[in-house]
Amino acid sequence: MPLPTFDVHRTHQSSDIDGPPYETAAPRKQRIFTCLLHFNAASSYMRRFTLLSSSSRSSAHPLLRQQRLWSHDTTPAHLCPSRFGSVRHARNKTSRMADGDIPSFPPAPPLPFIARFYGTEEAKDLEGRTLSQILRFDDEKLERSHDYIQNLFPLPERSPVNPDAPLLDQATRSAFLYSPVRNHLRAQLLEAFKRMAAFYGFTLDTNDTTDNHDAAKTAISYRYAITPSLNFFANARQTWLTRGDHNHLRITRIIRCLRILGLEPVALAFYQALIDNSGDVVSARSKMYWQRAAERPLHLPPAESDEDATGIEWLNGVS
Fewer CB within 10 Å, N side or C side of the chain? Predict the structure, then answer.
């Protein structure tokens, strides 16, 4: 059967093909129209691909911000990853950042308990007491209460008397030595020591030796003088000036804590005042622990007999 012939100048088919005359040009126009639609769609996607590819070089290009004006796709990007969803999402995020949006950061971790206990918020201990409340204890209450000293002067070692007391960790030491509130924390720690020194019959005098008027931003230098108070013998004989007493353990704790938290000059002055005023009353064993607390490397606890022991690892090499 011969192939049908078409005349481009006629609007009807050859007589070899059945059908009304209007079928002659309609299929051809339909095919041409369909091809144009596909061509326009392909051009649109190529233009989108070119603009999106250039976003890495110029994320702030003004044409990028007009994408939604010529894009008729309203499908969410996360539901349509095959249609440049992930790229479009990244481009939109970059564009928003270029417009001046402030990125969000995770919140800073809270200060450890000891820093909050000594800080302005005055966190309460397990017994519901704040620092200021403990410092208002009279001498009798300081003597018979055994669960406050671990909060005032924490140590890295757990207390057998109060095992639930907070420990002095690396974050706590960093807060006292390097945080923006370090001067306030150490000033409060010094107030706690003054109260205990008075309890033991001593007076603490400080002389500021720095010439820097903006000392809060730098290291503050003090000369500490710890001397017997007027009621020294009355207080000392009831607390520590004996052969052996539980206050000897407290004194060891105080010296070690002050050194770790940045008040080593106070700790050494306190140790020297104890030695100068103890005579032969205090046992040699207690004096040995005091000396270890004052002079040993910080990573070695006073109760550790092995000088080569690992001790507290995070304090190893710290001075």
Answer: N
118: Cα separation from own chain's centroid = 18
Residue 32 neighbours by CB distance under 10 Å:
10
Give me the chain's average pLDDT, please. 78
Q: Would you give the DSSP letter of residue 154?
A: -
Place of tokens 């070119």: 50
User: In which residue are the tokens 């304090």 written?
Assistant: 315
What number of CA atoms fall less than 13 Å from residue 283's CA on the CB side? Answer: 10
Give mean pLDDT, residues 222-247.
93
Count of Cβ atoms closer than 10 Å to residue 69 Cβ: 8
Give me the mean pLDDT over the 58-64 stretch. Answer: 43
The Cα-based distances of 210 to 63, 125, 176, 184, 216 in angstroms read 61, 35, 20, 17, 11
Question: For the chain, which residues make up each domain, given as ranges?
Answer: 21-98, 113-315
| Alpha carbons 224 and 222: distance in angstroms, whole number | 6
pLDDT in tens, 93-130: 544 555 555 666 667 678 999 999 999 988 999 999 99
User: Apex CA 50: angle with CA 47 and CA 52, to 5°?
Assistant: 105
State mean pLDDT over 282-292. 98
Strands (E), 43-187: none
Distance of alpha carbon 63 from alpha carbon 50, whole angstroms: 11
- The closest alpha carbon to 242, from 212, 201, 193, 279, belongs to 279
* Nearby residues of 283 by Cβ (< 8 Å), 6 or more positions away: 243, 244
Computed from CA positions of residues 278, 281, 189, 318, in that sequence, does the dihedral angle turn out positive or negative? Answer: positive
* CB 205, CB 227: distance < 8 Å: yes
For residue 49, the model assigns a pLDDT of 52
| Amino acid at position 111, single letter | L
Contact 257, 153 (CB under 8 A): yes
- As a whole number of angstroms, the distance between CA 230 and CA 203 comes to 9
User: From CA 292, how far away is CA 90, in angstroms rounded?
Assistant: 60
Residue 202: closest CA among 275, 123, 99: 275
